[in-house]
Structures are given as C-alpha cells and as structure tokens.
C-alpha cells in the first residue's frame, strides 16, 4: 500500500462498492435493491405530452454537433503549426470528449429521437468517442437508474469512500480513465467480463459485448496505423493529427463532462430511495446546457428518465414545487458539493440534506430509517 493510499484509508474507512460483496447482500436484505422510489405527482395527460419523442429537436442539435466537429477540426488542421490552431483543437475536444457524453447518455435511454435507429447510431458513435463498450454501458446505466447510489447495487457511483481528491482532480484530464477504458475494451475483446459486468449484463448480451469491443479496438488500431504511415512519409508533427481527431480528445476534451457529471450526485447521501435527496438539479449557462443536453435537471431526469432532454425544462417547471431549490449555478453547486465532500473524507456518513419547500411532499418513512438527519449548514 502506498503512503497516499494508507493516509487516505486512515481518513475514512473503505466501503465495498462491488456488486458481489456484503454491501450488495445488505441492500437486498433491507429492501434497498430495486426499491419503490418516490415520484412527484404529474397529471397523466401532462406526462404523456412530455414523454412524446420528436425527431426534430434532436436532429437539429445533432446536426449542429456534427458541424462543430467538422468546423473545429478543419480550423485545427488548416492553422496547423500556428498558435491559432490551439483554440480550434480545444473546442473540438469539448465536442468530442464532453458533448458526446450527453449524447451517449440520452440516446442510451432512447429518448431524443422518435426514430429508433437514429438513437442507436448516435449512441454507438458517442460510445466510441468516449471509449465505452456500448453493451456494457447500456446495462450499467440501466442498473444506475434502478438503484441510484445504492452501495453494492449501483455500478456508476462516482464519489466512492474513501474519496481520493487527487484522482478526482486528475479526471479533468482523462489519462487514467482513458487507460482504464482501453484495458476494459481489451478484456472484453477477449470475451472476459468482470464479476460485476456478469451481474448487470444479461448473458445473451455477452457475445455482443465482445464483438463491439473488437470493433472499437480495430478502429483505434487503424488510427494508430494512420499515424505510422504519416510518420513513414516524413510528415513530422502532422502525424499527430489522427490522434487529435480520434481518441486523443477523450483525454484533453473531457473536462466539461467531468465538471458537470461530478455535480449529479456528489456530496449527497447514499442508500436512499428519493431522487430529491440523492440527485442535484442546478441552473447553468446556455452553452453548458447545450453541451450537457439539459442534464442539469438531474432530479427530474432520474424521476422520469423517459422524458426527452428537450422537455426537461418544462418538467422542471411542472414539479419544482415538490423539489429542493436548485443550485443557482455550477459554482454554487461546487461550493455545496465540495463543502460536503471535505467533511465526508473524515465522516462518510455526512451528506447534504436538501431542504424541501413547504409545498413539497415530505420524505417517505423509508428515508427516515436510512438517512441521518444531518445538514451541511454550519
């Protein structure tokens, strides 16, 4: 054990976040697994209208997304060798390494487009950009929604105890995550699934997981081959262009994805069954909202995951009387989250306890059994 790991272990005890250990058994024993979750009341007719999928908004936003890829890449290549190229590559990185996350997420739910194959195409493109096996992550995210922040059940908990702030900071430049993703693809390509993957991925899907891992690795191999051929033809530093176009942006362009994703559940309590308690809704600037596809309305999304991203602002207006007050900005969200995170490093049971407005329904009885009545205030 390294000195840093030992020091972190002394700060707070480690929890078993695997899907095969004691935490998983505990969740099943106390009724946290696949539990009945709280939902705000929405009239049936209103919800039906909000759940209606349309091709138009997603086609528009996807066309803009693709056009910006092309525009920024063209600028980066045209101005190659000049400092003018740098902002083009940085912007391209955000389109590739950050905006792809929200497209992957929403198209994985099948909600942006009415036409199913359009969802599937964008989902697979975004999965490749993020170096995610499209089969594994589809089922992983389904489990995340079924058991959000339930320890031993949710495979996508970002803030695991003991919290390692160095790794969290390092995630804004995706070297570690990219390396882990490549190792996972290589393992899957050999037909090997982890114990956790075997739990949330149906056995009938295992061959597909291996197939798509091989497809992705083959595409990355072609990218590497392009670099070698350009080097062999004496193209010097221009040989880096294929990596800047494919694969590399997952490293240098992921910062906005990390910036927003950490806010979704950070500092909020585990092992509760009310999304008002364990998810965070916040307001943010229109550019970030477009990149993020309105996932800043995260309580609303978790309560009603089949509502398309373009209907989430209306859903927010419909149920905000039943929700905690949103954080006013990304900065405000980070102040709240990091204040709680710093306390959690020594007391993992600490969490932000969101205050509901007088018009909201109270937390259900199940929550009072599992959530300590703590607050970050003071």
TrEMBL record:
Domain Fatty acid desaturase: 82-332
GO biological process: lipid biosynthetic process
Annotated signal sequence range: none
Region (Disordered): 1-20
One Gene Ontology CC term in the entry: membrane
Gene Ontology MF: a single term: oxidoreductase activity, acting on paired donors, with oxidation of a pair of donors resulting in the reduction of molecular oxygen to two molecules of water
Keywords of this entry: Membrane, Transmembrane, Transmembrane helix
PANTHER family, A to Z: DELTA(5) FATTY ACID DESATURASE C-RELATED, FATTY ACID DESATURASE 2
Protein name as annotated: Fatty acid desaturase
Organism from which the protein derives: Sulfitobacter mediterraneus
